[in-house]
Design a protein that fits this description.
This protein folds into 2 domains: about 1-70 and about 155-205 and about 250-290, STM4215-like (2-Layer Sandwich), CATH 3.30.2000; about 75-150 and about 210-245, no CATH class. Helix content is about 35%, strand content about 25%. It has helices at about 1-30, 85-105, 130-140, 185-200, 215-230, 230-245, 265-270; strands at about 35, 50-60, 70, 110, 120, 120-125, 145, 145-150, 150-155, 160-170, 200-205, 250-255, 280-290, 290-295. The chain has a 6-stranded mixed beta sheet with strand order 1-2-10-13-12-11. It has a 3-stranded antiparallel beta sheet with strand order 3-9-14, with helices on one face. A 3-stranded antiparallel beta sheet has the order 6-8-7, with no helix packed on it. Helix 2 packs across helix 5 (about 215-230), helix 2 runs antiparallel to helix 6 and helix 3 (about 130-140) packs antiparallel against helix 5 (about 215-230).
């Protein structure tokens, strides 16, 4: 499934982003020739390296509720902000809502001030030709008693994961005398701890998730209908927002210090990794993964892709 492929890509990009973030902090601190790795190198090494080793992956321990209920994106107030959905998809949803309202497709009106909103159903034959053709192609799930159901982008939230890391410095800088100055782990881990406490987040570049199969044809159909009505600017903005979803995007990842590992557990972990007892730093990343974008009729009850 696409959601699992996205989860794989997200976790890989976040780990790679962490290494890049750490390299830049070490460079700013004046460490030259220091490499940042995601695993301990094989064999004896003397060149300086900062190893950020992931040792635990799991759901956030504070997570108390998983809510897979689809959240409608776009619409009034640009629903979906803060949901975890990529911002590019929220923009597409917002332009979809604006375009549909311009055409009077599935508009929400309040027949009486203060009354609950009523959904205006559009007959299939009343739709612009390009949109009518789209409804005819994509099947009965979009039609109800001969009327077109209003399309919506939905975001199904994922889970919050944490990845715990052990940071250890191995090797030495050139011309370093460990008997006369601090070992490499002291300054490097001090810089890393300072960066974690000061910044609290870093940015990771993500691959763009794939769009639901029926969405791009609908965007094209809606754009054509808007152009026929003289709304060329809105059609252009809608097309541009859809094109932007194919670009890589940046996600902020929380990086947090942790101190709940005792000395004995730390020593056992280093022993298991066949590393000498030495200074080490533990921290964790916290991020959302497993979210899914769906495109379906408004009020879709099951969260099932159409």
């Amino acid at each position: 499934m696409q959601v699992y492929d996205t989860a794989r890509g997200t976790s890989t990009a976040i780990h790679d982003g962490l290494l890049g973030w750490a390299r830049e902090r070490m460079r700013r601190a004046g460490f030259t020739g220091l490499e940042c790795l995601g695993a301990f190198p094989a064999g004896a090494r003397t060149d300086p390296q900062l190893v950020l080793f992931p040792y635990r992956v799991g759901p956030d321990p504070k997570l108390t509720d998983l809510n897979p209920t689809p959240m409608i994106l776009g619409g009034e107030g640009e629903q979906g902000r803060g949901s975890g959905a990529p911002s590019a998809w929220i923009e597409v949803a917002s332009y979809l809502s604006r375009g549909l309202q311009e055409l009077g497709v599935g508009m929400i009106r309040r027949p009486v001030p203060g009354a609950p909103p009523a959904m205006v159903r559009s007959g299939l034959q009343d739709l612009p030709p390009s949109i009518r053709a789209w409804y005819q192609q994509w099947g009965a799930d979009w039609l109800q008693e001969g009327h077109a159901r209003m399309p919506r982008l939905h975001w199904v939230g994922g889970i919050v994961l944490t990845i715990r890391y052990l940071a250890v410095a191995v090797g030495q800088l050139p011309d370093h005398d460990p008997t006369r100055s601090a070992p490499l782990g002291i300054p490097t881990l001090t810089v890393l701890a300072t960066a974690i406490y000061r910044e609290r987040v870093f940015e990771a570049e993500m691959e763009a998730p794939e769009a639901p199969e029926s969405l791009a044809p609908f965007v094209d159909a809606l754009s054509v209908a808007l152009e026929e009505k003289g709304k060329e600017d809105l059609a252009k903005e809608l097309r541009a927002s859809m094109a932007a979803t194919r670009n890589r995007y940046v996600q902020q990842v929380a990086i947090q210090p942790i101190s709940d590992i005792g000395n004995q557990e730390l020593a056992q972990m280093l022993q298991a990794l066949q590393q000498p007892l030495q200074a080490a730093l533990t921290f964790q990343l916290r991020f959302s993964v497993g979210g899914e974008l769906l495109f379906g009729p408004g009020g879709m009850p099951t969260g099932r892709p159409v």
